[in-house]
Design a protein that fits this description.
By secondary structure, the chain is α/β, with parallel strands linked by helices. The chain contains 16 helices and 11 strands.
């Protein structure tokens, strides 16, 4: 009898890779539920193949079409809808494992629901810990729930630290590809467009994460996520640019030894590890790694001057409280506005910085969930206003 898995964000990049792992391990897993924002064209084939007990749509705009397609294909499945639907899906008693693969702050409450229900959580949504790490980790400890990271960097750190006593750890080193604009100066960055920003050199990811990788905000979010996952202070976490993305992360021990986790840039590897932990399943769908094709591995210091988002995220982590939630919300709005052509690429960190400065007056040092939600909402509204002003200024030039 296989483990029952609910995939929150099944039509996105991580969700599809998760289903690929399940597909290639027949009998080990069953898909109990599928959730997505509203991509019916992708969801229907998943329902036909995996026969989940329920599905959930975050946006009710697509509900009628889903019902129509289910009737037309004579598919029987329970339907949840909206934010409450995702929360209900994540906490369903019919599931043993919840894969949280949605992007953005909307992943916080489903993550909390999954943890509260006592099921294992495979976490690909870094924003859940960025915004509400204190609450999520406290609840996980109380319920005895292990949170298994799916991000390649955090999966690497998790594996490297399994047999390392805490007192022997000196620091962890998170690697970053540097994104498509790694060697760009400020003048070149001012002219980049959406198409260029979505051309990641090594990974195939969704639009938001790909842009975050290009601004280096993704590494900032990963630093905060690592602080909570591994209970580490900011000072024990470093970021190094490694363009080849062969080494996914490293840990340095007290005696000077450095352990590195290496492998192909394929998300199905950390997904398989998280789903099967503490076992390891063969990932036959991934091409074996050939060191001869990577004769040169290089490392660089992040360019904080031209890519300030990493520093802003670290500043938010140092301030703590509701600041990371406010920072993340502003970034989500700014990235969306860039993707829709309303602001420039270089405007994204400007929006984040302005929102963070404004939030200093409203900071809650030890937030409850309501405080985090309020900070998120206020920062989104402010970021919208900032983006409108920046967009008007760009058009007037």
């Amino acid at each position: 009898m296989g483990k029952n898995v609910v995939v929150i964000g099944s039509t996105g990049s991580i969700g599809r890779s998760t289903l690929d792992v399940i597909r290639n391990n027949p009998g080990r897993f069953n898909v109990s539920g599928l959730c997505c924002f509203g991509n019916i064209d992708a969801l229907i084939p998943q329902i036909e193949e995996f026969s989940p007990g329920f599905v959930s749509l975050f946006s009710d705009e697509f509900l009628d079409r889903l019902k129509y397609e289910l009737r037309r294909r004579k598919l029987q499945v329970k339907i949840f809808c909206g934010e409450k639907g995702n929360i209900k899906a994540a906490s369903s008693r019919s599931s043993d494992i919840a894969v949280i693969a949605v992007v953005g702050g909307i992943g916080l409450e489903p993550t909390l629901a999954a943890v509260s229900s006592g099921k294992s959580v495979c976490l690909a949504n870094k924003e859940a810990l960025v915004c509400g790490g204190s609450i999520v980790m406290a609840r996980a400890k109380k319920r005895g729930v292990r949170i298994l990271p799916i991000d390649s960097e955090h999966s690497a750190i998790f594996q490297l630290l399994e047999n390392v006593p805490r007192e022997k750890l000196k620091r962890i080193i998170i690697t970053a590809s540097g994104g498509p604009f790694r060697n760009f100066d400020s003048k070149a960055l001012a002219g980049v467009g959406v198409k260029e920003a979505l051309m990641h050199p090594n990974w195939s990811m969704g639009a938001k994460i790909t842009v975050d990788s290009a601004t280096l905000m993704n590494k900032g979010l990963e630093v905060i996520e690592a602080m909570w996952l591994f209970d580490l202070p900011l000072e024990m976490i470093d970021v190094v640019v490694h363009p080849q993305s062969v080494i996914h992360s490293m840990v340095e021990l007290s005696d000077g030894a450095v352990l590195a986790h290496m492998g192909r840039a394929d998300m199905r590897i950390p997904i398989s590890f998280a789903l099967s932990y503490p076992d390891r399943l063969p990932v036959d769908c991934v091409e074996p790694f050939d060191f001869r094709k990577f004769s040169r591995l290089t490392f660089e210091t992040p360019d904080h001057e031209n890519f300030p988002s990493l520093g802003y995220a670290c500043r938010a982590a140092k301030i703590g409280g509701t600041m990371p939630a406010a920072m993340n919300a502003a970034n989500e709005v700014a990235v969306n506005k860039f993707l829709t052509g309303e602001i420039k690429f270089v405007d994204i960190p400007r929006v984040v910085l302005k929102a963070m400065r404004a939030h200093e007056k409203r900071l809650v040092a030890s937030p409850a969930l309501d405080d985090i939600i309020a900070a998120d909402s206020a920062s989104r509204a402010l970021a919208e206003t900032i983006c409108r002003k920046l967009g008007k200024a760009d058009k007037s030039v």
